[in-house]
Amino acid sequence: MNLLAALIVFARSLVSSVGCDPQVKYTQSGDAYYESAPKVEQDKSSALPTSPSQAESSERKGEQDYEGNRSDEGWSVVTNIIATVITAVATGVMAWFTISLTRYTKLLWTSGEKHSERELRAYVFYESADIARPDDFSEITARVKILNSGQTPAYRVRHSIAVIVADHDLVDFPVPQMEASEMSLGPQVKYTMERRLILDRQQQADVRGGTKRIYVFGRINYVDTFKNQQFTNFRMYYSIRGKLGILPEDSLPVEPCSGGNDEA
User: Can you tell me whether residue 97 is helix, strand or coil?
Assistant: First the structure.
């Protein structure tokens, strides 16, 4: 509405200015030029005698016709200008709408692709873990079962696993060495990682007495079907505290640590 009001005011001012200008003419090539109203000369020899009132009336009529022609030509110029402005505004609006639509369509497409990847990609993490031990407790074997719970295979799977005896408040874990071999893990396929540790008498006494824990930790690296690098870190421990000081006969159950269990 504001734009229309501005156009009307502009048109009126333009018509007013056009009304005071000479008559608009156009050449054959379409170029506009202005020309004063032609003066009509009568052949005095053939002119019929007229009365003063008739002459005045004829002159007034000629002026009215001239002003009417100039007004019509002025409105034609204003109409062309208004049409040009409206066309330019409409073109700008359509361009903005097209750019916005293209941008939002691209965002929706990208969002849909990311959602599809999250739904279909491989997810490899540990499913269960324990620590096997012989009767004399001289050697233990940490066993970590991993699972690809995704809908597509995991490629170039590499893993590391370590088992140590350390204090209860261990924070800085050593970085275990990654296995050199690689493998693929299909959807819903499991694999068990193992690592053995020989315990000396002092370590056995520390674990039995509850002064130290057995830690099992490591990392899994793999590439999903969308060529993205993924990983899973895991940290678990066994402590005899709260278990009446009695070791289980076959295997030691482990619990996740408060930190260090994350995945991408």
Answer: helix
Looking at residue 197, the DSSP 8-state letter turns out to be: E
Residue 40 tokens read as 């009509």
Q: Strand, helix or coil at 179?
A: coil
How close are the terminal C-alpha atoms of the chain, in Å? 55
Model confidence over 188-235: pLDDT tens digits?
A: 999 999 999 999 999 999 999 999 999 999 999 999 999 999 999 999
Amino acid 38: pLDDT: 52
CA 193 and chain centroid, separation: 39
257 CB neighbour count, 10 Å cutoff:
17
Residue type, 110: T
Query: Do residues 193 and 161 make contact, with C-beta atoms less than 8 angstroms apart?
Result: yes
Task: Give the chain's radius of gyration (CA, Å).
Answer: 47
> Angle at the Cα of 8 (from 90 to 26), degrees rounded to 5?
80
Spatial neighbors of 198 by CB under 8 A, at least 6 apart, are 138, 139
Positions of the chain with pLDDT under 50 = 18, 20-22, 26, 34, 37, 40, 46-47
pTM over 0.85: no
| b/e 136-174 (16+ beta carbons within 10 angstroms → b) | ebeebebbbebbbebebbbeebbbbbbbbbbeeebeebe
Please give the C-alpha separations between residue 54 and each of 10, 46, 58, 253, in angstroms, as whole numbers: 40, 17, 6, 126
